[in-house]
Amino acid sequence: MKTITRTVGLLTLLLSLGACTKEIFQMDAQRSAPAIFRYIWKDYAEHYGLFAVKQIDWDSVYEAHEDQINAATSTQQLYDHVAEILRTLNDRHISLYPASNPELPTWSIDRTEDGTYVLDDYHFDVIKDNYLTDYKAPNPVIQYGKLNDKVGYIHILHFDANRNEYENGLDAALSDLSGSQALVVDIRDNAGGYDPNSQYVAGRFAREQELYMTTRKKNGPGPDDFAETREWYVSPTGNQQFTRPIIVLTSRSTASAAETYLLAMRTQSHVRQMGSTTAGSFSDNPAFEAPNGWMYTISIGDFRAADGRSYEGIGLRPEIFMTSQREDWVAGKDLILEKAIELLQ
Asked: pTM score, two decimals?
């Protein structure tokens, strides 16, 4: 009886070890360089919403790299190949986070080699210290003051906060600036947030209701699998609106929900855009994860202006184009703001 018991126990152990070994081999295969590359490529194939807009043949992108990736491909080489195919998309909303390999930097098309993003064409302290009077910051997302007796100034840092912060902050700002004949709205360093927030904020500067954007988002793996198109309208919001002349200042760092905010503002006849062209990254971009622990964002939507045109990868060019120079900021000067003040006098 003992012999039978031992034999059965040994067989059970061997079968268990065999199953574990098979599982380990399967896991290793799933985490091999070819498998990871295929996995990430497939995630974009099924979820990216802008292949048609950008006229990108994603299959050919895969084929161009497939033969260069094998079991001997190093982690660094795999990272380089993934970064290269993502670069093809020309999408500033896409980032690669190789969290399981901390020696590798975060990647996106506007980051430096060490994975950081440097904003070198805007410094709010220069504006606060050299141009504003009656400066106030009622909450972390709204800062405002007066540029002179005629022109007010509002800086919107992002659209990531709770709705009441925008409501309360703008109530205070528009009340204090109610005597101004014109207004500068500065979103040059605004990287976006939630589109419903930007829609509400745009309504605080709107005279009338206007269609400003349509959106549709991927809801299946096929190239034409999109949910129904949604229409976005801007209309007056809140208890008080500012509808006198407005100049909105933008830069290449104006992105995402800040750009959808700009689409709404540009429908209003009293609003002009000034500065440099925006980032050109409108779509929502949720995060996905590969089996090796790398994470990456994917633009799942097709966002368009009211005229049906997509500005993804292009950006919104201002009516009055001006760029900043580093030496001007160092000298404490914001020449774009100075020009806006001159135009609004």
From this structure: 0.88
